[in-house]
Amino acid sequence: MGRNSVRSDCLVNNRGVVTITGSQCGNGIVEEGEDCDCGGEASCRGNPCCDARTCKFKANAVCDDSNEECCENCQYKSSESVCRASTGPCDPEEKCTGKSPNCPPDKNKPDGESCGNGLACASGQCTSRDRQCQMLMGSLLGGNDTYSCDDRTCTLTCSSPSLPPNTCSSLNQNFLDGTPCTAGGRCKNGVCEGSSFGREVKSWIDNNRSLVIGLAAGIGGLLLLSILSCIVRRCRTRRRPKSMAPMTQGAVFSPPPPGLSGWRGQQPADPLMSYPPQQGYGPGGPIDPPFPPPAYGSTAAARGRMPSVRYA
Prior knowledge:
This protein has a domain at 114-195: YefM-like fold (3-Layer(aba) Sandwich). The protein contains 4 helices and 16 strands. It has helices at 129-141, 197-207, 209-239, 300-305, and strands at 50-51, 56-57, 71-72, 75-76, 82-84, 94-95, 114-116, 119-122, 125-127, 147-148, 155-159, 169-174, 186-188, 191-193, 281-282, 285-286. The strands form 7 sheets. It has a 3-stranded antiparallel beta sheet. Strands 10-11-12 form a 3-stranded antiparallel beta sheet. The chain is elongated. The termini are far apart. 20% of the residues are buried. Mean pLDDT is 78; it is low at 1-8 and 297-304.
């Protein structure tokens, strides 16, 4: 896990190994033209699968038990045979295929996949930034209360309550590849890759979940109260009676027509329901009688019964 370390795999089988010398039967490496190579007659003594002199399989043999994980009694192991055990929740076991003498490549769970207890997979290990600080620097800083100082970098920087406040200690090492870093990125060879603004916001929300929930609840409550207040105001406005229109100066009102009782307040007179004024004097002077004037006497009877009247 060092800064300048080289990742390599152990030699688990003797096939496909690159050499600087020519092919040679008995060197323990299966090269072109060979079925097997158990390393010479001394090393192959008692080997039932490989002929040490020719580097060929013996009769009925299809593999070599001495150098191949999925070979047993010179035959392929079944597909239920475990050829590589699990090292933890982030490194599942591998099984033979039943069709090959070699164990399938070692595969780990994806980096960042949860493995329980607040931990996540990184390079096949169930870990976290704090856990790596505890494993590598816990003994130096005073125990399992060691924690990671900063998630923005991939350099191992840790602190502990045993140190002065705001003090961090750094080693010349990096966090495991796949360890989370700032803005949703992942460490790779000591560099935080894949970070973005959107992921940074999401990371901040995840790290401050309780604060975000409180703010969201408060804002939601205010919005709900505002909506309810608007609804109540709207309902009150609809129930309030409409104000009476102001009286127009000079409007003429008339009593209700015959047959209707009660007075409903002053209302403008309906021209179809108005009544002619009584005979007499009105505001503008004399009012003509509602009936036509009597006929002037044209007969003697009329002249005798009715005196003549001259109208001005």
